[in-house]
Amino acid sequence: MTQTRPSADTTFTPPEFIRNFCIIAHIDHGKSTLADRMLQLTGVVEARSMRDQYLDRMDIERERGITIKAQNVRLPWRVDGQDHVLHLIDTPGHVDFTYEVSRALEACEGAILLVDAAQGIEAQTLANLYLALDKDLHIIPVLNKIDLPAAEPDKYAAELANIIGCDPSDVLRVSAKTGEGVTELLDQVVRQVPPPEGDADAPARALIFDSVYDTYRGVVTYIRVFDGKIMPRERIRMMSTNATHELLEVGIISPEPKPSKGLGVGEVGYLITGVKDVRQSKVGDTVTWERRGATTALAGYREPQPMVFSGLYPVDGSDYPDLREALDKLRLNDAALSYEPETSVALGFGFRCGFLGLLHLEITRDRLEREFGLDLIATAPNVVYQVYMEDGTEHVVTNPSDWPTGGKIAEVHEPVSKVTVIAPSEFIGAIMELCQSKRGQLLGMDYLSEERVELRYQLPLAEIIFDFFDSLKSRTRGYASLDYEEAGEQVADLVKVDILLQGEAVDAFSAIVHKDAAYAYGNKMATRLRELIPRQQFEVPIQAAIGSRIIARETIRAIRKDVLAKCYGGDISRKRKLLEKQKEGKRRMKTVGRVEVPQEAFVAALSTDESSGDSGKGKSKK
């Protein structure tokens, strides 16, 4: 190659001059800032166009300061007099978006493992490192933020070298903020990361690792080419659905989309077919030629399993078709989202949605409201339970309303997670106390260094998704980091708590909780609803019940008109008669009256304080 900078109009870049890599790290360790410096140093973004967190495109990402979507960009770089093409994928750092990270790793041969030189290795760092090692990626260990006064690069370089199995001198040191060491890092990416392998003459095979919906152009599909080449105006076939399309445009991201004359082996780019049907571009599918195409598909991705379920309902029932269309389009951009229609007596028509975690739920709801102009109610989140009856039948419960009522329950199985907590050793007692209060079992404990310890627990997933992370942060003054993964299921003593308004169960308020926590939940909901539901003309009892047994009760007093206002003096029997008449009227009204729960009360009762607090940048579960 003789050109000084690879352009969008040249022939295919030979694979030996391509490097595909991603940046993985714990949240807030500087991934997006490092990507900014790389964009500046390679010259793909002009100084006047530059802004912080350039690759975080969504408003919600910029507001919260967290990366939600993995973004890819093509960078030119010259080393030892030779031009190279670098494909960088900036990945999220939060546990709920680990699926985005795993997809990015499939498109890469190398990974920059970024660690904060002032904080050291966190739980998410280890989780992402193991993901990268499973894919046989070449790891480049890097310490960031060496310009901070609190930085201890020597100490954490030794810690990092101990885990990866390299020499502390191999750990690169950079400051993404000032740009120090970033040039050397890019040089090392070229020298250390292996070039992509593939057969340029074989039938085309390209892996879809992401896709987005564009209102004007339809589905935009992001691919990594493994074999052959993809050219504009060719007819292609999606191997899982056998759908065929004509390619209207093929291009690269640098960092804005630029049309090109095609993509060769090892290159990352995008395809536009003009298709509006979002189901025809499945993440993990293999793209090949329609004629003389490949016969075996690429491995693709393991389907993500939802860990938390919640119902999403439009406040205005007429928005239901719009919500369905919005979920279809969002699913294209978020393959980890799953949903199916459901109805609620209290809330009408909506969808039962599956999420990877509480932040994923919150972000999805936020995106539906912002990007599609919807007004939504989310029911209390819960996990998936397996209920075995004494007659041998089995029920899968994703919603409290699915809880079996007829027959005796033999046992209930709940999902459990393996939890890793990394924290300063002075907080061991506080962490153990918290985990035991959440029904946790200690699996093991290791000292990473003299001051830092790794605790491994098995905890019920239902105990993690609510307030566990907030409690952990408050007990460790913000120093603990948390990571969790699925670890099967266990038998648990669980019950369904119903909330009754005037003897009628309100399905939206039902919850499945551990027997020991049932009274606390029932009491909390009854007290909250007493404050939220407006007073009626008649007395309204609010009860919490397990089956037919009432465990908590609150009463909303009736609004009483002063019927004695016009009685000045006179016989007491006249006053008593008026009061008895009013009492009889209230009793009659209570038998026919229905309690109308306003939408605001549903929203307030179902929005738990714990879930709203888990969205800040420093609040990462992984």
Describe the structure.
This protein has an 8-stranded antiparallel β-sheet. A 6-stranded mixed β-sheet has the order 2-3-1-4-5-6, with helices on both faces. The radius of gyration is 29 Å and the shape is globular. The chain has 5 domains: 15-192, P-loop containing nucleotide triphosphate hydrolases (Rossmann fold, 3-Layer(aba) Sandwich), CATH 3.40.50; 205-289, Elongation Factor Tu (Ef-tu), domain 3 (Beta Barrel); 308-378, Elongation Factor G (Translational Gtpase), domain 3 (Alpha-Beta Plaits), CATH 3.30.70; 386-492, Alpha-Beta Plaits (2-Layer Sandwich); 495-609, Alpha-Beta Plaits, CATH 3.30.70. The longest helix is centred in the last third of the chain and has 21 residues, at 572-592. Helix 7 (320-333) crosses helix 8 (358-372). It is built from 15 helices and 29 strands. The protein is an alpha+beta fold and 622 residues long. One of its GO terms (biological process) is positive regulation of translation. It catalyses: GTP + H2O = GDP + phosphate + H(+). It is found in: Cell membrane.
